[in-house]
Amino acid sequence: MATRAAAVQVTRERILEAACDAFLASWYEDVTLRDVAAAADVALQTVINHFGTKEALYGAAFDRIDDLIKAGRYEVEPGDVEGAVAALIDDYDRTGDFLLRALAEEGRLTIVQAGLARGRREHQAWVEHVFAAALASLRGAVRRRRLAQLVAVTDVYTWKLLRRDRTMSRDQTVLAVRELVEALHHSTEGGRR
User: Fold this and answer.
1) Could you tell me where the DSSP H helices lie in 33-130?
2) CA 20 to 30 Å from 42, out of 17, 105, 120, 157?
3) d(CA 4, CA 27)
4) Looking at the structure, do residues 50 and 139 belong to the same domain, yes or no?
């Protein structure tokens, strides 16, 4: 019985890995259960037995990708701006195009909305964790503004503008985002505008 359960789990993991690869590389509509089954080297019915629908498989893949994002980002010690920005850009180099496609599909696909809402909350929580020193002495509207600024300069859209639109190298992108974060880190309250 234990051997069968282990084999079932291995098959499920293989399907989920194939789904993550497919969704990371393609638009939601371009991924089929049949393609995922072929990539996982299982029958289509096996994918259906494990996940039921494409929406459920996407949700499980999104959760797995989200877990990988969190694992990489939280390896950085709070206050390590250089390490945090490098981890962030490395993450976006792996997942940024997937996230941008998800954002483009957000208005049309309900399954995407929940994952992105969670991702936004988690990104802000990570910013508050890793850049806590930049927020520590701030209160009220000033703190909310600074947090919003840090979230914005570390957002996937900033990565897109620098890496994709401006075709900056990884190292130049890390440097550019680090400079923005450090400017916010070292900025004084700056009045109550």
Assistant:
1) 33-40, 44-51, 54-73, 81-105, 110-130
2) 105
3) 34
4) no
- The encoded tokens of residue 188 equal 């004084």
- The structure tokens listed for 152 are 């914005």
Q: How many CB atoms lie within 10 A of CB 165?
A: 9
Structural domain of 11: 1-60
Which tokens go with 39?
């990539």
pLDDT in tens, 72-119: 899 999 999 999 999 999 999 999 999 999 999 998 888 889 889 999
Does 68 fall in a domain?
A: no
Tallying the residues shown for the chain, one arrives at 193
pTM of the predicted structure, to 2 decimals: 0.86
Residue in the block written with tokens 């002495």: 137
Quick check: helix, strand or coil at residue 31?
A: coil
Residue 65 located in a structural domain:
no
Is 177 within 8 Å of 88 (Cβ atoms)?
yes
